[in-house]
Write a structure and sequence with these properties.
By secondary structure, the chain is mostly helical. The chain has one domain. Helix content is 61%, strand content 0%. The chain contains five helices and no strands. Helix 2 crosses helix 3 and helix 3 packs across helix 4. The N terminus and C terminus are likely disordered.
């Protein structure tokens, strides 16, 4: 089980749940194809391939996208991730999820 601080850091921040799912699905299609040698059990050990995708590739992709979006450093992008989780979950919820205003 992941710790809370790690949980916050692996969320794709202002991309929200919708963005998280888009990033994860895209990476899964790219790297976890059947009979693919791109991400092997050995290359991501001790994590499983799917855990590696969700705990490493999705958050790092989000960091890179944020760096590109706002022209910032890696460290600044990581800070944006932590600071914008709530915003992302409200602005970019799941496609079929409706968030009502207070």
């Amino acid at each position: 089980m992941i710790q809370y601080n790690t949980f916050i850091e692996i969320q794709p921040s202002y991309y929200g749940l919708k963005g998280h799912n888009i990033i994860a699905d895209t990476l899964r299609q790219m790297y976890l194809k059947p009979n693919s040698n791109i991400i092997t059990k050995e290359s991501c050990s001790p994590l499983s391939q799917i855990d590696y995708l969700f705990e490493v590739l999705v958050p790092e992709t989000a960091v890179c996208l944020i760096m590109n979006d706002i022209q910032c450093t890696y460290k600044e992008a990581k800070k944006v991730i932590v600071q914008s989780v709530e915003y992302g979950n409200r602005i970019n919820p799941e496609a079929d999820e409706i968030i009502e205003s207070d």
